[in-house]
């Protein structure tokens, strides 16, 4: 028996379109990104850095009959939505691209990843201080909540008032130098001038935020008002409920492919999951089962990679030669090393010692990608504690250096989920640096 408590899945607000319609809208928003992702996946060496190389930009524009600006925007969206991933100098299709036409959940997850990264999609004005931009990004969830609760158009002045209030709260929370002896309060004229400058700045930041959210399909802009799209309304509701798109429930796993079986077992506790693995393995020859599990592990879905090695633990000794053979594959090496360490009798708590620092960091990012794709936001925040670096700055430095293809998405998701504004700001900055290829 399991003691895990479950609750009925909460229902979205009345009037929310069905998931098939939401997915159709998400596909429309990302149509150019999907075309570019397919082009990039079938073209050798489209770029070695985050921005698309100039020669590849020209080739893509010609092949797809798009303008260079459209190609550049679609390339960024494809990367942020997990449709393509860069491995050295080669772009490979992400797992979402493979599932794009048949899996509505993959489509909606890809769009939510883009929604979380709206501030990267639509760059802030260059003449605005980075700190002010960060405060606006932190205040935007309150703006979105007002739009969602209003269930219709909200005037720009009302949104600006809320943004100003939230920014002022953030500034007050961070003010650590009280007015004391020798410090005089500003004159009324100075206060009025400062308030006017703040109001003007907030207006610019609100315009930028609304344009960025409109650019990813989360809202529409009218004359003096903004309205959430059905996609935006659904996404904000999902964030408020702190749930992820539900995975398929486990049923009939013995007849499923390895990937479907693993997904079906994803929400089971370890004991029942192992029972499912044993039943699935018993219906197959060992060689074919191990080969199928390793093929799934080589895919782009980090959750399935980890679960595949959990299933291989149930196989035991017959899987040892095949697991040892994948030690040369960078994406599988950390998992294989841990599997072999436990197979050879090491305590699971000590098995991490067999990994190098770089391998541990890569595994941390890969696990975070699995949580971001399939878990709850609280799990992603708690995942910080498992990093070997001990401090967030050290972790960010090494995460940037390790070169995992999902680094940007993981950092964006972590920044969106973390309750500490200062830490979220640092993580967002790191995501931006990785996205733009900066140091």
What does this structure look like?
It is globular, with a radius of gyration of 24 Å. A hairpin with a 2-residue loop joins strand 4 and strand 5. It has helices at residues 19-29, 31-41, 54-64, 68-80, 95-99, 104-116, 118-121, 130-150, 156-174, 188-215, 230-241, 258-265, 270-282, 286-297, 302-315, 320-325, 333-343, 357-374, 377-382, 392-402, 407-417, 421-436, and strands at 84-87, 90-93, 154-155, 219-222, 225-228. Strands 3-5-4 form a 3-stranded antiparallel sheet. The chain has a two-stranded antiparallel sheet with strand order 1-2. By secondary structure, the protein is mainly alpha-helical. It contains 22 helices and 5 strands.
Work out the oligomeric state of the chains in this entry. Answer: single chain
**Structural class of the helix and strand makeup?**
mainly alpha
Shape: globular
Largest sheet: 3 strands, antiparallel
Q: What are the secondary-structure elements, in order, as H or E?
A: HHHHEEHHHHEHHEEHHHHHHHHHHHH
Task: Provide a quick synopsis of the model.
The protein contains 22 helices and five strands. The protein has helices at 19-29, 31-41, 54-64, 68-80, 95-99, 104-116, 118-121, 130-150, 156-174, 188-215, 230-241, 258-265, 270-282, 286-297, 302-315, 320-325, 333-343, 357-374, 377-382, 392-402, 407-417, 421-436; strands at 84-87, 90-93, 154-155, 219-222, 225-228. The strands form two sheets. It has a three-stranded antiparallel beta sheet. The protein has a two-stranded antiparallel ribbon with strand order 1-2.
């Amino acid at each position: 028996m399991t003691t895990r408590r479950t609750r009925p899945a909460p229902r979205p607000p009345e009037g929310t379109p069905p998931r098939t319609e939401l997915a159709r809208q998400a596909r429309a928003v990302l149509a150019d990104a999907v075309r570019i992702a397919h082009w990039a996946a079938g073209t050798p060496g489209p770029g070695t850095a985050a921005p698309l190389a100039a020669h590849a930009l020209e080739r893509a524009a010609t092949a797809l009959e798009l303008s260079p600006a459209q190609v550049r925007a679609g390339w960024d969206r494809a990367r942020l939505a997990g449709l393509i991933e860069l491995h050295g100098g080669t772009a490979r299709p992400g797992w979402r691209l493979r599932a794009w036409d048949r899996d509505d959940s993959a489509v909606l997850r890809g769009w939510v990843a883009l929604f979380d990264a709206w501030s990267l999609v639509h760059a802030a004005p260059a003449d605005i201080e980075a700190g002010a931009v960060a405060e606006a990004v932190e205040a935007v969830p309150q703006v979105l909540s007002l739009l969602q609760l209003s269930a219709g158009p909200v005037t720009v002045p009302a949104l600006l008032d809320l943004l100003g209030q939230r920014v002022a709260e953030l500034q007050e929370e961070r003010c650590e130098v009280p007015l004391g002896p020798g410090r005089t309060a500003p004159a009324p004229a100075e206060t009025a001038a400062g308030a006017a400058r703040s109001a003007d700045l907030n207006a610019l930041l609100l315009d930028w935020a609304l344009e960025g959210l409109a650019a990813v399909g989360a809202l529409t802009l009218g004359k003096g008002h903004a309205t959430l799209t059905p996609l935006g309304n659904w996404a904000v509701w999902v964030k408020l409920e702190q749930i992820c798109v539900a995975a398929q429930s486990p049923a009939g796993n013995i007849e499923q492919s390895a990937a479907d079986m693993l997904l079906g077992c994803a929400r089971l506790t370890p004991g029942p999951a192992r029972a499912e693995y044993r039943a699935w393995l018993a219906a197959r020859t060992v060689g074919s089962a191990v080969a199928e599990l390793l093929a799934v592990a080589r895919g782009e879905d980090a959750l399935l990679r980890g679960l595949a090695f959990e299933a291989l633990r149930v196989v035991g000794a017959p899987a040892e030669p095949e697991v040892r053979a994948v030690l040369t594959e960078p994406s599988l090496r950390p998992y294989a090393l841990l599997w072999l360490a436990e197979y050879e009798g090491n305590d699971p708590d000590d098995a991490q010692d067999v990994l190098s620092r770089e391998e541990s960091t890569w595994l941390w990012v890969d696990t975070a990608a699995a949580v971001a794709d399939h878990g709850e936001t609280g799990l992603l925040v708690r995942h910080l504690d498992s990093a070997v670096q001990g401090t967030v700055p050290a972790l960010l430095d090494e995460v940037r250096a390790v070169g995992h293809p999902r680094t940007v998405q993981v950092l964006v998701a972590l920044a969106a989920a973390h309750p500490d504004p200062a830490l979220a700001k640092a993580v967002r900055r790191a995501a931006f640096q990785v996205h733009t290829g900066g140091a």
